[in-house]
Amino acid sequence: MSYLAPSEFAVKVVDAGESKLHMATRDVLIRAYMAGAILAIAAVMAVTIGIQTGVPLIGALLFPVGFCMLYLLGYDLLTGVFVLTPLAWIDKRPGVTWSRILIHWGKVFIGNFAGALTVAVLMAAVYTYGFAAEPNEVGQKIAHIGENRTIGYKEYGINGWITIFIRGMLCNWMVSLGVIGAMMSTSVSGKFIAMWMPVMLFFAMGFEHSVVNMFLFPFAMMMGGDFSIMDYFIWNELPVALGNLIGGLALTGLALYTTHVRTAPKSKF
């Protein structure tokens, strides 16, 4: 696999966060747009396979192909930059400020959302013959998923909000391990294996990913899901994004940085 030791790839993680903050706005938006679009295609493929086979695990096993492809192509997800960019600030890299980080997050959010929304419109047209027919079985199923993951949480009030926040934390703990996985090896096969495992786990467990949801919920609304845009943002996207941020940064980024960059034992030779 051409495996790199943690002390080696942990430094690459910080370098990656710094480089992303110095990218031109055009590149940030293009890379984020394509990442959102590719992940959306992978998500609808995984859900479709789960419905057709009646075995959701098969969809979870295949979903990571989209994640692996977008990261090998150098595209960016919001969940990834949540982890990488703050480490450059913690490491006191020159020119890295919180204002720059927050602006970068905003650009990536816009790009991811635009890409995911584009695929949502295209797939809605596919599943309704250009909006001339009722949604097929997959479209109807996703509409119900959208309802369950908004109104379903809303019914439990603050406890529902906390639950989806925790599911967002657990999600990006796994997904960010996939982001780091791309840096663990110098071979394509090694990168694929290291990215595949945690991303498969997140999807199989039904955790909440903010970028996947940028596709799922607009698509569910187009398929007739009975919930509002405000329901989506307040009872899903907001708590999920916050959970993704806290889970990925605390459980992956800071843990790796603290023990493999900041306080790693130094050789005496």
UniProtKB/TrEMBL annotation:
It is a multi-pass membrane protein. Signal peptide: none annotated. GO terms for molecular function: formate transmembrane transporter activity. The keyword Transmembrane helix applies. Its main location: membrane. One of its GO terms (cellular component) is plasma membrane. Keywords: Membrane, Transmembrane, Transmembrane helix. It is found in: Membrane. The keyword Membrane applies. Pfam families: Form_Nir_trans (PF01226). The chain crosses the membrane at residues 28-51, 57-90, 102-127, 158-180, 192-220, 240-259. Gene3D superfamilies: Glycerol uptake facilitator protein (1.20.1080.10). Belongs to the FNT transporter (TC 1.A.16) family. PANTHER family: FORMATE TRANSPORTER-RELATED, FORMATE_NITRATE FAMILY TRANSPORTER (EUROFUNG). This is Formate transporter. It comes from Acinetobacter qingfengensis.
